[in-house]
Amino acid sequence: MANEPMKIAIDYKESSEILKKYLGMNGSPVAFRFAATKDDIPASMEELDKTIRHCMMVTLARKEGKIFYATVGKHECNGGAWALGLKEQTQTLKTGEFYFKLGKFASAAACKRTIDNVSHLNLLETYATMYAPLEKTPFTPQVIIIIANPRGMLKIAQSTLFRLGGRIYSEFSGIQSLCSDATAQTYLTGRPNFSLGCDGSRKFSGIEDGEMVMGLPAEMLPEITAALKVVAAAPGSK
Asked: Minimal CA–CA distance to 183: which of 78, 33, 36, 38?
């Protein structure tokens, strides 16, 4: 997990400009990285000075241009901290009781079946999480978190199929959309993942009703941005 440059250099500033232009984004794409140890964090980065949720941290980078890292004590949401490998899963989340009490499932068993399929890093695999607007990232990102309207998501979906074609298979369950669906799952699988957002991220982090979320493996940036310019200008494109 060492914070080293990729073997093939990527112009993150240019990539961000392309994504914002062709996806019609309201804010920046967010560069994200798991830090396995404190040494993985650039000396220029400061720790977040408050305790909030991962989805709210994404918003700070996306809307306010903040660059920071967050250790476990800065993560307010237990489910998000668990998905990101920072904290042990709580007993109420493990049994399904947590989301059952919130009225999200007909039974605790249904909730447990869902939770058991939520992508997450191994316990204590992460020392801290790092965030930055893509155009200003001081670290080598592992995941690019994108929040855009459905038309923008259509264009990036088309861009993922531009070279080889095929189908897109996304996984989500209406909970833990930014922490698990867009971040942990994308990192673990190395595949883009689209999600509808969740009640928590929409309530606490300002994701609007007309926006979706996705995670893009950072290694795919050159391919996606090159395809995006072609797809968006295609005669049949809206």
From this structure: 33
Average pLDDT over residues 147-161: 96
Q: How many CB atoms lie within 10 A of CB 91?
A: 9
- Least Cα distance to 58 among 70, 49, 40, 46 occurs for 70
Please name the residue that has the structure tokens 């493990």: 94
Q: In this structure, what token pair is assigned to residue 60?
A: 């700070």
Residue 139's nearest CA partner among 10, 1, 49, 5 is 5
When pLDDT is averaged across residues 201-206 and rounded to a whole number, the result is 91
Which residue type is seen at 26? N
pLDDT digits (tens, 9 = 90+) for 86-125: 999 889 888 888 888 888 899 988 999 999 999 999 988 8
Q: Other C-beta atoms within 10 Å of 149: how many? A: 15
In contact, 184 and 119? CB cutoff 8 Å = yes
**Amino acid identity, position 69:** Y
Whole-number Å distance between alpha carbons of 152 and 139: 26
Query: Does the pLDDT of residue 1 top 60, yes or no?
Result: no
Q: Any idea what the Cα angle at residue 30 is, between residues 84 and 161, rounded to 5°?
A: 95
* Distance from C-alpha of 183 to C-alpha of 32, rounded to nearest angstrom: 8
